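#onboarding

Welcome to the new folks! Below is a worked example of what a typical request in this channel looks like: someone posts a single protein sequence, and someone else replies with the predicted structure as tokens. Don't worry about understanding the tokens yet, we'll cover that in week two.

Example request:
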Amino acid sequence: MILDAKGNPIKKRFFEIATRNTAAGSFVTGLSQLPNPSLLLQDMGKTIEVYDRVARQVDIAAAMQDYRAGISTMDYIIDSSNLDSERVKWFSGYLDSLDVPEIIEQSLSARDYGYAVLEIVEWKQYKGKTVPSRLELKPAKWFGYDIEGNLRFYTKKKPQEGENVHKRYPNKFINPRHKATYENPYGIALLDLAYWHAVGLNGNYEFMMTFLEEDSRDKWIVKHPRNATSQEIDHALSMAYNLRNNAVAAIPEGNEFEKKDVAGRASSTELYTLADELLTSKIVKLWFGTDLLMQRDGKGGYSSSQSGVEIRGDALSGGKRIAAYTFNELFRICDELNNIPGAEDETISFKLYNKTETTKDDAEKDSRYIDRGMKPTAKFYVNRGYQSDEFTLDGTQNQNTSPRISESNNESEADTTGINN
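Example response:
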């Protein structure tokens, strides 16, 4: 029994108290398939396969592709307290033997579906060690989570119960997720949030065109004699309808037709374009965290003064974390199956970066701190976008050394003072 300073037992503090098994709710103890909490899937009785149809909408597909391209084309490093260690060099070489961009793009499926399941389907020998060589993204609809949040694979033999993936097949599957919580282990799927936007852009195309066309047309008023019969009035209205559509009509004697222009309205083409851009901008904002990527032709001061990569810098942080999780899991699997060179207690991590993240303002701020006595370390320059083999730091370096930014292309360019290439 563990006691605190006053001799009171604190054993219960080491156990999880608030769980689905103890909470008062609609949970069933031992449930092997926790329902996906998506309101779309619950209220409309749909399955996760509906996300596949949403992903095929052309604007959403473009946003997904552009987002994944923005992440997968970034540079990467292996971060550690000792960038020249044997472990860093070994894992750096291992990553060079993999298709890193492809693995990143597969991992980012977690952002679209809420979660992704990557299976290690091929292995190889690298410097005498058995390591994964190829990962394959499996359909999310084959998997789910149980009441304890464990990933389960629902097989033909066990379609209801499924199999605890990580328990049955350790070091075989990697499961990146997007904003998953205890309450929602399925994560937040952007395709779930974009469903109604896809309906508006795709399924409702004909309705939107009809509505906008009718709404923007001029209106006609029919003046008929006081003693006109209902049949005569209906016939006059029919003639007005033909006149509106065909500009030609046989008007009964005694009727007057008057056109009322729709003032202040744009054409149907302009209205449809506006509606289409509104929905598309919401999709872009959902995927990138901002709709400034759509601003063009001088619209939006920020977008015209910043490049697309810089705008993405903040918006893609979630994707960078998802990709990092996948590769850190690969590192863990390699470590568990092999005796990797270097110190076992050294912590390494995968990190994505973009060399254009360092701006002129950053360099000027660094210069001010260095002038006051700050001495840059190797990690400082790595964080600024340099590879560890691109520079050396000696003990006599000038304290005024700081990264210098080229104004022509806004890319990092190191001052050669104190750095021997």
